[in-house]
Each structure stands twice: as structure tokens, then as C-alpha cells.
Amino acid sequence: MIVVIPARGGSKGVPGKNIKELGGKPLIQYTIEAAREIFEDDQILVSTDSIEIKNTVENLGLRVPFKRPPELATDEAGSYEVLLHALNFFEDSYGKKPKTMVLLQPTSPFRNAKNITEALNLYNDSMDMVVSVKETAANPYYVLREENEQGYLENSKKANFERRQDCPKVWELNGAIYVLNTESLKSKPISQFTKIVKYVMDEYSSHDIDSKLDWIIAESIMKSMNS
User: Fold this and answer.
1) CA distances from 152 to 93, 138, 144 (A)
2) Keywords assigned by UniProt (predicted)?
């Protein structure tokens, strides 16, 4: 089993966010600490194009054995290619072929080792993936609308529910944990996976940082946790 933590240097929403300090620690440190509670250091691969991120991670005592090539560090580069690159590096360098990959994005600082362990316990080799989710507030049966050909808004999913609580539950990927079958990953992108099982997380532990507002909310969560 290997763990991949993708940490690109460029970030438009929050510049330098992967090593920006949150609660006195670089953001990426929260993910590394959670991973280290479960996995050995030689199972954890931080994939980055940034020398600053590499130095920050190595100052935490975790070796970064490769630098991501420039073509995988652009805004257009997909996560699929990044994961395959990390997997190929691991197989070529260590002579091992892991059956499972755990993808942990550094933008989920409140996801912890317990969450990762619980997601792993749901996984077996017959699946393509276990993925962490939260129940979405933007239910397509109730509050989401799409514009039709006449320019009028209509429900994204057709239904006649009068109350939100009567609608089916809908799950939103929160970006915190992906437990991936490496054979499935080699054969097709994650977007084409069909054998997917959910791991449900609460709203706080699901918080993902993508924008300045997300960062402000994360600071507020951190203060409430420390008070």
C-alpha cells in the first residue's frame, strides 16, 4: 500500500496554501501527521513541483524522493496523470507493486488518522475505490436548478418533494480520502470508476481549503478546536 499526497506549488485561490501556516503549522503538515500515524515513511510519497514544499516536508523528516515534472505541474495537468506518475516511480524505485493507493489531499487539515483507518476498513480488492463524502446541503431534488432551452429554471432532478427532509440523501465528495485499487487506476481514470463505496464524514472534518473564504473558515474551526 502506498500513500500519495499531491502538493503543487501554484495555487490561485490561496497563494502558497500548501505550506501557509494554519494554527502554527504548514497546511501540509496536518496531512503528513495523519498519514504517519498509520503508515511508514517509506510508504508516503509527496508529489510536488515546488522546492519550497519539498524543503518544508523534508524539514518535517519526511524524504521527498522525486520532483514532479513540469508538464504535471500546470493548471491543466490532471490528478490522474499525477497519481500514475507517483505509482510508476514507486514501482520502479522499490520493485514493489502495491495493490492499494491512498490519496490524501493536503487541503483537508481536519481529516485525521481515525478517518483514514475507517475508510480503509471499508475497502476490499473487489472495489475500484472507497471515497470520503459528506451529505450535501445543495440537494438537486430540492434547491439546485438548471436552465432549460427556454431560459427558465427547473429542478436539476425531477421530483415533487415538498420538504427537504423528504428528499433522498445526496453525497458530495469532500476531497479528503480516496482509497484506490491500483489495477483499476492503471486501466481507467477515477471519473470512470463504477464500483465505489462511500465513507461518510461530518461537515467539520470534511472542510476543504480552496479559496480565501475557505481559509478563514479553517482558521475559525482551528480556534474553536483549540479553545
Assistant:
1) 56, 19, 13
2) Nucleotidyltransferase, Transferase
